[in-house]
Write a structure and sequence with these properties.
Elements lengths: L29 E2 L9 E2 L10 H107 L11 H60 L23 H107 L11 H62 L6 H4 L4
Antiparallel strand pairs: 1-2
Length: 447
């Protein structure tokens, strides 16, 4: 029997390749060659001969067996499917619950680290504010240092106007030089400390910003994880993200994540402790420098007081000697006048004696006798000459003493003027200027 055409339930799909004549395929024809075979040939896929009874029963048994096997397999697959559905449902619930639990634990960890970061930021802010207050104290102290330095230099310049012999390198000048050197050293120390404080404030700001950035990242991550924790199977904004199950190349591990925050906290705490120590150091420096300056100021004032007492005592002694010298000058002037009067008083007796001798030298002849009168007159003249010589010598000595007293008077008056000028410089200029010396609170930067 000729081959029949195959029926199609739908139109064949259009060929994209143009049809062409293919070579005919040759089929081997099966023949029934058994005892109870029927005549005719069977084409490929079709049987033209009738089936035998045994074949019919075999076909039925095969269908029964196939039906039982398919039914059993279907029941088994259905049971396995139901069991698989239940297991997958339970597994999905368990994994979702476990994931939700993990997200919650992660949120607790992040809240813990976030609170630590927030606490560290607040402590850094508070510590930076305290350090800024110390910086203001340093600035006020540096400004206040200009006053004692100007006072010390002005005192040194004013004391250069002293006159000789009071232009000496006394204890006051030594203390003033020590004070000026101390102020310069303190200013250098405060400037170095100021640079350290500024650098520490900058480090505090940098680590505060680092902690704030870490805290901000954790806040954003907490918001994301809280949103993830609120998701459930009935959420309306769920979508498929097939590629989200892949790990990011830049993703951190829990160890590196915790280590990153720990290092940030450690560095911030280290800088905070350094800031605390620096603040204590600044406080000690300001306290010590203010006390040193006040002690040196007291030492200078004490030296000024002692020097003024010495000058006052020296001036009083000089004035006392001047008064005695003036009295002695008066007495010596009277003495000179008395000596001159005594010399003048001796001139008349000398004239009388010399006149007598001159008149007696005119006695005639034998009357020109060396009598007792002649000897007495001659001794009288000699005695008067000796007295006049002694008086004149004493007058020269008195006049020289008077000149010496006048020189001493002038020297004393000049020295008194010098002491008065030195007292004016030390007491009226220097010590009056030192009353503007800053207080301990100003030197410590509190005012």
């Amino acid at each position: 029997m000729a081959q029949t055409d195959i029926l199609l339930t739908k139109e064949p799909a259009p060929q994209t390749v143009p049809a062409c004549q293919l070579p005919r395929k040759l089929y081997d024809v099966a023949r029934n060659t058994g005892t109870h075979t029927s005549s005719g040939l069977a084409t490929a896929g079709f049987r033209t001969a009738k089936y035998l009874v045994d074949e019919w029963f075999q076909n039925c048994y095969a269908r029964y067996h196939q039906a039982f096997a398919d039914l059993d397999q279907s029941e088994r697959q259905r049971h396995e499917s139901q069991q698989l559905v239940a297991e997958t449902e339970a597994l999905a619930q368990r994994t979702q619950q476990d994931s939700t639990k993990k997200v919650g634990e992660r949120l607790q960890d992040m809240h813990c680290w976030k609170s630590e970061l927030q606490r560290q930021v607040e402590e850094l802010v508070a510590e930076t504010d305290l350090l800024l207050a110390q910086k203001q104290r340093l600035e006020r102290t540096l400004d206040a240092m200009a006053v004692p330095f100007s006072i010390a230099t002005d005192n040194l310049q004013c004391r250069e106007c002293r006159q000789h012999p009071d232009l000496v390198r006394d204890c006051v000048e030594m203390e003033l030089l020590k004070e000026a050197d101390l102020i310069r050293n303190i200013q250098e120390l405060l400037k170095r400390t100021m640079m350290q404080v500024v650098n520490q404030i900058r480090m505090n700001h940098e680590h505060k910003e680092t902690c704030e950035m870490d805290w901000s990242d954790k806040v954003e991550a907490c918001d994301i994880d809280e949103a993830c924790c609120r998701y459930h199977n009935q959420s309306t904004d769920l979508q498929f993200y097939p590629h989200s199950a892949k790990f990011e190349e830049s993703a951190s591990t829990p160890e590196t994540w915790a280590k990153f925050t720990q290092e940030n906290l450690y560095r911030a705490e280290r800088e905070r402790l350094a800031s605390v120590n620096l603040r204590k150091l600044v406080d000690c420096i300001l306290q010590d420098t203010s006390e040193d300056l006040r002690l040196q100021c007291d030492a200078v004032n004490l030296a000024f007081g002692r020097r003024c007492e010495e000058l006052e005592d020296a001036r009083h002694k000089l004035e006392h000697h001047l008064r005695k010298t003036l009295r002695e000058i008066t007495d010596q002037e009277h003495n000179v006048a008395a000596l001159k009067q005594a010399i003048r008083d001796k001139e008349a007796p000398l004239k009388v004696a010399q006149t007598r001798l001159y008149q007696r030298s005119h006695r005639p002849n034998v009357e020109l006798c060396r009598d007792a009168v002649q000897f007495r007159l001659m001794s009288e003249v000699e005695e008067l000459n000796l007295s006049l010589a002694a008086l004149r010598e004493k007058l020269l000595e008195a006049e020289q003493s008077l000149r010496n007293l006048e020189d001493t008077r002038m020297s004393l008056e000049k020295d008194i003027a010098v002491k008065t000028n030195s007292l004016f410089i030390d007491r009226q200029k220097c010590m009056a200027h030192r009353t503007r010396y800053p207080t301990v609170l100003q030197l410590a930067g509190y005012q």
